[in-house]
């Protein structure tokens, strides 16, 4: 096995950590403000975290060596898990967001202090920027001087 295939997918771990941090931040803001939009966004971030965990599982499973039942290996299994991730993102995330949106549209909460929105936005920017830097440190050396 080459060194590239044996490396840990650190970029996925970075994305999982960033999304968990963003989710916690959004849930804290939703708790203090009662904002259905912030609660919906927190649920969305949790679903993203679950999706990335499934992608991590797919990466792990796709690296298994060839055997009698899969003579060409398991590399294509990653695409199966990517499909599952997409279906869950639209199904669970979209469904929960629609439920929260309709419920709070019928019974809206008054907007209190928008400061929480800015705190969440700032922290999400920091967390996602860190995840992006981790991904770029992995991606750019592999690309090198190649063009698109």
User: What structural category arises from helix and sheet content?
Assistant: mainly alpha
Tally of separate domains: 1
**Number of separate strands:** 0
Helix content: over 70%
What's the pLDDT, averaged over the residues? 83
Rg calc: 19 Å
Short structural summary:
This protein is mostly helical. The protein is built from 5 helices and no strands.
Core attributes:
148 residues; mainly alpha; disordered N terminus
Tell me about this structure:
By secondary structure, this protein is mainly alpha-helical. It has one domain (7-143). The chain has five helices and no strands. Helix 2 runs antiparallel to helix 3 (36-62), helix 2 runs antiparallel to helix 5 (115-143) and helix 3 (36-62) packs antiparallel against helix 4 (77-106). The longest helix has 30 residues, at 77-106. Residues 1-5 have low confidence and may be disordered.
